[in-house]
Design brief:
single chain; 431 residues; alpha/beta; abc type-2 transporter like fold; 2 domains; four-stranded mixed beta sheet; 16 helices
């Protein structure tokens, strides 16, 4: 135990002297988690998870405009209504083309009257036989910023088209109600015995007969987890990214000992290589825990002040800490292997940085695994960062308990054991 304590003290002393390395280890993940989370929060707004601003210019000032505003207000679109006396369609087009607004709608003059006239023509009859009519469609002008994403464009266009379809259907039903009411009146049928007087028929058609209800049990959250937000995803993801970057200073420490001849002196002492490796691992596990704590503090106290949701760990705190510990072990094991296998610090830093970035990209830190091609989704299982991130997601997003993440925790522990064993074998061969 004293030998391990001495090794830990040596590693921490060397690390404290490397202030630049410490700054990179703590500052890099802190900056990344803030920047990436802000970007993803904005992307969520643009892709429809939050309300999208839509510019509306109602030159008609009729019933159609009020019905459209009512439909859109009930959805996920937030309208910005321009005064038709101060702006025209050219102003709206310029505002959308310049990127000030992403979507613009113009209701031309006379749209309401044309819409009502064409609706009435649908039900015009001659001697009880309906004649086919050439119905003229009333068109609204839609302007879309060419710089927006295809997903947002398709989503907003579909929502607008559905709102117009609903307005047209309700108008047809109202006209059908009045037509049937007049027909039944001429036949002497008492109107008080039918549901067709007034606006009862459109009201009946608006009654939902099919509905879609989300099952909260699918997320295994009896108390109900909060909806997805990028904070719960990015805080553990970029904390893991920073923790695995500790592999570079660990490798640098081993290479410095080899270059300066200290490793030969250590080999002559009655100290096992595994004891030396354990001392390095314990020292840098403390660094990884401090990294994770820093990112959690940023997510808890800084994010609410810059317009982001607060990071919370509402349950399974013990499982979260165990995941952090085993992820730290995996990162330290990789650093030990890197230092033993490489012949120079340049090799270790280049190979370590490249490997960690590739493992982060493959493991879902930068892009969610479900958004990757199928081949990459299958390859993501080889990334240690994917094991740690999946465990965090199961705990923080899905509400799972410790037994559900034991497989990923086992992979992290096995990765640490294999890297330390390989490092020990390589070191024995060199001696």
């Amino acid at each position: 135990m004293l030998k391990i304590s001495a090794t830990i003290a040596k590693e921490l002393l060397l690390l404290l002297r490397d202030r630049t390395g410490l700054l990179v280890l703590f500052l890099m993940p802190a900056i990344l988690v803030v920047v990436i989370t802000l970007v993803q929060e904005n992307v969520m707004e643009l892709t429809g998870q939050n309300k999208t601003l839509v510019l509306l210019l109602d030159q008609d000032q009729g019933e159609l405009g009020s019905l459209l505003r009512k439909q859109l207000d009930a959805g996920n679109l937030e309208l910005v209504v321009w005064d038709e006396k101060r702006h025209d369609s050219a102003d709206l087009q310029a505002a959308v083309a310049g990127g000030e607004y992403q979507i613009g709608i113009v209701i031309p003059k006379g749209a309401s009257s044309r819409f009502l006239e064409e609706t009435e023509r649908l039900f015009q009859q001659d001697n009880g036989t309906e004649k086919p009519k050439n119905i003229v469609t009333t068109s609204l002008r839609l302007f879309v910023d060419p710089g927006i994403m295809a997903g947002l464009r398709a989503g907003v266009t579909a929502q607008l088209q559905m709102s117009l379809t609903t307005i047209a259907l309700e108008a047809k039903l109202a006209m059908l109600s009045r037509t049937l009411q007049g027909t039944l009146g001429t036949l002497g049928v008492p109107l008080d015995r039918t549901p067709l007087d007034g606006d009862k028929l459109p009201a009946l058609f608006r009654q939902p007969m099919l509905n879609l209800t989300e099952d909260p049990g699918a997320s295994r959250a009896a108390g109900g987890l909060a909806p997805y937000n990028p904070v719960q995803q990015n805080v553990p993801a970029w904390a893991l990214f920073g923790m695995f970057f500790t592999a570079i200073p660990i490798a640098g420490s081993i290479l410095q000992e080899r270059r300066s001849g200290i490793s030969i002196r250590l080999a002559a002492l009655p100290v096992s290589l595994l004891v030396l490796f354990a001392g390095k691992a314990v020292a840098y596990i403390g660094v990884c825990l401090c990294q994770f704590l820093l990112i959690v503090l940023i997510g808890t106290f800084l994010f609410p002040h810059i317009g982001l949701p607060c990071f919370t760990i509402s349950m399974h705190l013990t499982a979260v800490l165990l995941t952090v510990l085993l992820s730290s072990l995996a990162a330290c094991g990789f650093g030990i292997f890197l230092g033993v296998a490489c012949n120079s610090y340049e090799q270790a830093s280049t190979l370590g940085a490249t490997t960690v970035v590739a493992a982060a990209a493959l493991g879902g830190v930068m892009v969610p695994v479900y958004a990757m091609p199928h081949a990459m989704q299958r390859l993501s299982i080889i990334s240690p960062l994917n094991w740690g991130l999946t465990a965090f997601q199961d705990l923080l997003l899905r509400g799972y308990a410790l037994p559900a993440i034991l497989d990923n925790l086992g992979r992290l522990l096995l990765f640490f054991a294999l890297t330390v064993l390989l490092s020990w074998k390589i070191s024995r061969l060199r001696q």
